[in-house]
């Protein structure tokens, strides 16, 4: 305020002139947020009135599978007059680079030996890097089925076989590994007995809210799937036939109330949690733990079934291709001593904590998780969509398709709103229960999106948070979350460095998907409150957003 000749003049609050990071708690952050939104950002509120037609048929993730070439060929060989190329879908910890490249390095060494087949051709191994759950989805859909499949654990093979997918076990163990709970040193005794995981202790402290536990999406992550089944098996007191019983589902729902974060994969989990210290424990494979930086002060406690990377031949593999897979499995066995160099085979004495006889239980367990993962609380979410000029063309078209298709993953008991942004922010749709009318208006707003202007990402996130907090005043039972979909770094509005403390203190997870680029800012903002950050091409946008909503909504 300035006084001039007896007059009081109110000066507008200018971006960059306000120390928004000088906040110490939620109440202070909420006050700062209101000032920023109302005085600095000043969003428009042109609410969409157009209602789009709603598809009455449901969508599942198998329908949204992207082109297989969205997944990298780590070793790329092709069939020829002299070559029998055998492609294996291989999980990420084996098909990457360096310590994550055991299959890549062994495949190249195997290929150099020129394994000769009875038909005179040379057998060669091709490696495609694809997460176990995503690979299982392609096999379930019968789409782009490879010759071989090596998930992290046997659970995926059991599940696929129970659904009629033809798999032949070539090797039960190729890269010995285990899954575990990574727990802060001073919390180990809360979940262990004599150094071993005490699942009943874990269930008790998480359910009571005394212990913050995070894990990964069991539709995509082998470790997440193993953890889900471990929990259900414990609630069923070791009786497989009781794992799907209503009382077990209810107990799992109560457990979920103590779980603040479910990441898409263990890499996201580690990036979102290490450094923040908010979670007392989270899940990870030992090979990743052994090779990770920043995990001093944490202990690894194994759980569930082993993660030994079995190798299967699929129904696509003919006799010669199976011979190549068998020869490759033998080559791996002959070179088993190298596994330790990559962080594998560090826990040879660990025995599985449970075994399943019926693989169909796994699919049913995933459905229980989908239904109960919010812990009985409805969710209120704001979608924050980038409509800046760089989104014009294929990107805005892909975003529209992705949001249209993935809207079917949102339960009608949840509440949804929409904010769009370029250099300005607009509230296209206030938060309301996602009934047919709200869904129709949401899809109508998506259909009418057009691209142009700059990129004020952080302004839009703050507006979304403001909308959610206002909604929560009359709907305190809802869990709050934000989904940001953007293709570029912030060029306009408030820089992240000026407002990150406000976002962090509000404690609203900001899940983000970056289109076609790596965003340091989006990764950072998602890491402020244990949320997921995902990079996506336009071709895989619908699948990535569908996965995210399947995990969070």
From TrEMBL:
Residues 380-553 form the VWFA domain. Pfam families: VWA. This is VWFA domain-containing protein.
């Amino acid at each position: 305020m300035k006084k001039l000749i007896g007059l009081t003049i109110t000066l507008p609050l200018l971006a960059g002139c306000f120390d928004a990071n000088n906040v110490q708690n939620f109440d202070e952050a909420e006050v700062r947020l209101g000032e920023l939104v109302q005085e600095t950002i000043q969003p428009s509120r042109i609410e969409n009135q157009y209602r789009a037609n709603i598809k009455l048929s449901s969508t599942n993730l198998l329908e949204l599978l992207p082109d297989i070439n969205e997944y990298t060929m780590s070793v790329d060989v092709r069939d020829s007059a002299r070559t029998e190329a055998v492609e294996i879908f291989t999980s990420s910890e084996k098909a990457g680079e360096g310590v994550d490249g055991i299959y890549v390095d062994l495949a190249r060494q195997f290929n150099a030996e020129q394994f000769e087949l009875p038909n005179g051709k040379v057998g060669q191994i091709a490696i495609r890097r694809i997460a176990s759950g995503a690979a299982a989805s392609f096999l379930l859909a019968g789409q782009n089925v490879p010759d071989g499949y090596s998930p992290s654990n046997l659970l995926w093979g059991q599940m696929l076989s129970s659904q009629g997918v033809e798999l032949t076990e070539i090797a039960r163990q190729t890269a010995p590994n285990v899954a575990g709970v990574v727990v802060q040193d001073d919390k180990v005794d809360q979940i262990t007995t004599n150094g071993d995981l005490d699942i009943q202790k874990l269930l008790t402290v998480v359910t009571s809210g005394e212990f913050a536990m995070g894990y990964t999406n069991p539709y995509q992550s082998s470790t997440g799937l193993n953890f889900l089944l471990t929990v259900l098996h414990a609630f069923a007191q070791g009786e497989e036939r009781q794992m799907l019983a209503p009382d077990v589902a209810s107990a799992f729902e109560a457990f979920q109330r103590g779980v603040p974060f479910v990441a898409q994969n263990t890499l996201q989990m580690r990036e979102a949690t290490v450094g923040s210290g908010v979670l007392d424990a989270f899940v990870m494979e030992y090979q990743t733990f052994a090779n990770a930086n920043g995990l001093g002060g944490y202990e690894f406690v194994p759980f569930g079934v082993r993660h030994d990377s079995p190798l299967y031949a699929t129904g696509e593999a003919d006799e010669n291709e199976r011979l190549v897979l068998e020869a490759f499995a033998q080559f791996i066995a002959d070179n088993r001593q190298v596994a330790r160099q990559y962080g594998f085979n560090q826990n040879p004495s660990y025995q599985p904590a449970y075994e399943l006889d019926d693989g169909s239980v796994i699919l049913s367990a995933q459905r229980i998780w989908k239904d109960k993962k919010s812990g009985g609380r409805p969710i209120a979410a704001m979608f924050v969509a980038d409509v800046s000029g760089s989104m014009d063309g294929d990107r805005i078209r892909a975003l529209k398709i992705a949001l249209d298709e993935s809207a079917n993953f949102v339960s009608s008991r949840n509440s949804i709103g929409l904010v769009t942004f370029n250099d300005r922010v607009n509230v296209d749709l206030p938060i309301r229960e996602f009934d047919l009318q709200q869904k129709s208006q949401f899809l109508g707003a998506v259909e009418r999106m057009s691209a142009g202007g700059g990129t004020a990402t952080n302004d839009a996130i703050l507006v979304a948070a403001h909308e959610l907090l206002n909604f929560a005043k009359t709907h305190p039972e809802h869990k709050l979350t934000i989904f940001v979909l953007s293709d570029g770094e912030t060029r306009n509005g408030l820089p992240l460095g000026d407002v990150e403390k406000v976002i962090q203190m509000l404690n609203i997870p900001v899940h983000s998907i970056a289109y076609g680029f790596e965003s340091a800012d989006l990764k950072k903002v998602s890491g402020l409150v244990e949320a997921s950050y995902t990079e996506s091409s336009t071709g895989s946008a619908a699948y990535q957003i569908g996965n995210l909503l399947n995990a969070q909504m």
